[in-house]
Amino acid sequence: MKTAKQLELFDKNNDIINKDRSEEKQIVKTETAIVIKSLDELQKELFEWQKRNFNKNDTGIPWMVIGAAEEVGEICHVVLKARQKIREHQQGFDEKAKFAIADGVADATIYLMQLCSHSKISFGETLFSVAKEVLKRNWKEKKKNGVEND
After folding, report:
1. Per CATH, is 4-124 categorized as 1.10.10?
2. What is the pLDDT of residues 67-87, one digit of tens each?
């Protein structure tokens, strides 16, 4: 049986651990807010850039969806040709292929960010909110929907 002193030390340790966890959570929240703010600023900057560089008839929701799909198509092309080791990707997944994939991912992300701008959606808040939900899923154990037992 634990003595009163041992229990008091145990409680103090738990308080310290809980305080540390609370501070860690606050740090993560602050860092997340900074990243969201940065993404929101980038989103706004890209939207303003788009307005300066393209006619209004060449922008908007349909164009952003088409642009994102086209960029994903480029990624698919690189992955297919690198896997087949043909055309410009005869070396497979080399640095050239990795660069092309990274470029396509960035371009597709920019189009999707612009889609969010046209839809009045915060890309950063949406990204973090949905990512948190995705991280709760366990598809190996909960096959039905990732969160509920089958």
Report:
1. no
2. 999 999 999 999 999 999 999
Give the pTM: 0.78
The position carrying tokens 């030390």 is 9
Q: Which helix (H) or strand (E) holds 86?
A: none
Q: For residues 72 and 110, give the distance between their C-alpha atoms in angstroms, rounded to a whole number.
A: 12
Question: Domain boundaries in the chain?
Answer: 4-124
CA distances from 106 to 30, 81, 95 (A): 25, 20, 16
Residue-wise pLDDT tens digits, 5-50: 666 666 666 666 666 666 777 777 888 889 999 999 999 999 999 9
Q: Alpha helices of the chain — where are they, by DSSP H?
A: 4-53, 61-84, 95-118, 123-135
